[in-house]
Amino acid sequence: MSNFLLLAKQKGMAELVTTVCATGGGAFKFENEFRQQVNMKLAKFDELDTLIKGILFAEVQNPTECYFYENARDIMKSEKRAFDFSKPYPFILVNVGSGVSILAVYGPDNFKRVSGTSLGGGTFLGLCCLLTGCNSFEEAIQLATKGDNRKVDKLVRDIYGGDYDRFGLTGDLVASSFGQMHIKDKRSSVSREDLANATLVTITNNIGSIARMCALNEKMDKVVFVGNFLRVNPISMKLLAYAMEFWSNGTLKALFLEHEGYFGALGCLLQFNGEIAAALNETAETTTTSSPSSSSSSQSKAEPTNTSQAAETVSNAMNSTTTTPTSNNVNNSDS
Amino acid sequence: MSNFLLLAKQKGMAELVTTVCATGGGAFKFENEFRQQVNMKLAKFDELDTLIKGILFAEVQNPTECYFYENARDIMKSEKRAFDFSKPYPFILVNVGSGVSILAVYGPDNFKRVSGTSLGGGTFLGLCCLLTGCNSFEEAIQLATKGDNRKVDKLVRDIYGGDYDRFGLTGDLVASSFGQMHIKDKRSSVSREDLANATLVTITNNIGSIARMCALNEKMDKVVFVGNFLRVNPISMKLLAYAMEFWSNGTLKALFLEHEGYFGALGCLLQFNGEIAAALNETAETTTTSSPSSSSSSQSKAEPTNTSQAAETVSNAMNSTTTTPTSNNVNNSDS
């Protein structure tokens, strides 16, 4: 946050624009700092509303936005494939930021928050910093990529000597995350990379397990994972694809989106644009009153008709919202 | 395990008894060591069957076995109260050992494993050993008792500056476990006690959240928590009682049992006793063919009729099964 305010002062943004779009907790927490330090007002939008509007807009604009992993059961061989998400409803939306929110989405304006967990990207990063001394999300992911959780976790075969057949638990499943680390000589034999990998696998599998139960509860078969935790993080995406496939016997599909962590900012921009436009002309008004999926398309058509003022505000809004800390920004060190 | 084998050799157990009851993974993993090192056979019983039989037996024998926390919403004031568990069915059973198994129990011989998580007591102990340098479960719990997770976790108010009203998330809820630990000066300001407390709160709340979803899925309102993770661990029991009460708006009840971690051993002993007795007299035979709740009571009546051989085996069985490593023994350092 302090970085954005510094930039706003240096570049004299307050001379150019008076209002900045913001979503997430920061929109509330930092409102006074914006007013006092750079004399800017915040246009605040709910992070879950903007998240969904951003996703729907991106899906309409980009036919290859949504993808899944083919051969998900073989993590070494699983590969990205485009998924037709043009008929999305209903779906479970798992937003993995520093924490995790899980939504059941029934339609463009119809969703509920069904669950969540505090074990998210912030937990992965926080634990990795403590356990490995790393200093950034990118560094933590790099370490995890080179490590092996099997030296840290206790597997079913470490307990049973093989599979626990009766309940279909194969020997290579993790029975207890970090379950070998109470043994002194095991602790001294693991590397930073192993600890980072175990942390990533632990957090990712837990999210997958909770998401699967939500899908079961809501009787939905599509589970869409978004959020900055998935940025530069194919290990987690492949693990989630595997977990959905394995634990549901293929009845659940894990889906991912190319712009994983930026939908809140995008949706925020769209709503702001819509509201400004609505005050200016009728064309744009329809973009706020009609359903987001249609508004997404009419929105893009409507944009050229916006006044330069609206367009200017919007372009600045995009800059600001992407730097405004939100609860799904896992690697913002000053949020 | 090596400790038990050493003891068995020193005390010449093999001269006195030829068969040892065992449950959990160790019964399979260590079978050969038993045969080779102390010439003892293992009578192996499934850990979930024995767990439930042990619970039902204890409940019949001890009227104050089961309890709940009164005033669960106020952790500082919540207090143990006896709960009448004489009509138990149906209930969710959460067995928190090194990992966690969650069962839906419909009747004495009718249950299914509905879920589980690898984030259990082994994860708490493993992470505490890594983060604080402690060396035992008891030490980890002692540290946790003196710490404050709010210095480690990111709360909703750290993000929103207050509550996130729209979704009923109050400011003091944890939004991201360990969510402050990516900030260098926050890391340097937390104590071992704070880290242990945050680890305990993280693992406990995650188990509570998954258990709640299972109860929702199975439409059950009683959730019974057992396993060695709860031994000398009132913090976790009070947190679980709070979580069940809070997140279900009082529709779910968290229940606990006095002999938290020993039901597998007890049920194992009962089954073995039943099988031996079945081979000896008709009275006992009915105890293995009838339902466990009736067998639990008739079992206890039948015991005096057992031969000294059976009785002797059983008494040793109790010793061995309590020391045999099982997946719900969270503080066995050589499993």
Write up this protein:
- Two copies of one chain form a homodimer.
- The first copy, chain A, has about 325 residues and is an alpha/beta fold.
- The first copy, chain A, folds into three domains: about 1-60 and about 265-280, no CATH class; about 70-145 and about 195-260, Nucleotidyltransferase, domain 5, CATH 3.30.420; about 155-190, no CATH class.
- Chain A is about 50% helix and about 15% strand.
- Chain A is built from 15 helices and eleven strands.
- In chain A, the strands form three sheets. Chain A has a seven-stranded mixed sheet, covered by helices on one side.
- In chain A, helix 11 (about 235-245) links the parallel strand 10 (about 220-225) and strand 11.
- Chain A is globular.
Kindly report the spatial arrangement of strands forming the biggest sheet of chain A. Answer: 4-3-11-10-5-6-7
3D shape of chain A: globular
CATH homologous superfamily designation of the largest domain in chain A: ATPase, nucleotide binding domain
Summarize the amount of helix of chain A as a percent range. 40-55%
Work out the count of structural domains of chain A.
3
**Radius of gyration of chain A over all CA atoms, rounded:** 22 Å
Largest inter-chain interface? A-B, 66 and 68 residues
Break the fold down into its secondary structure elements and pairings.
The structure is a homodimer of 335-residue chains.
Chain A: H1 2-10, H2 13-16, E1 19-23, H3 26-29, H4 31-38, E2 41-45, H5 47-61, E3 66-70, E4 79-82, E5 91-96, E6 100-107, E7 110-117, H6 121-132, H7 137-145, E8 154-155, H8 156-160, E9 174-176, H9 184-189, H10 192-218, E10 222-226, H11 234-247, E11 253-257, H12 263-280, H13 282-289, H14 292-302, H15 308-323
Parallel strand pairs in A: 1-2, 5-10, 10-11
Antiparallel strand pairs in A: 3-4, 3-11, 5-6, 6-7, 8-9
Helix pairs in contact in A: 5-12, 5-14, 6-10, 7-10, 10-11, 12-13, 12-15, 13-14
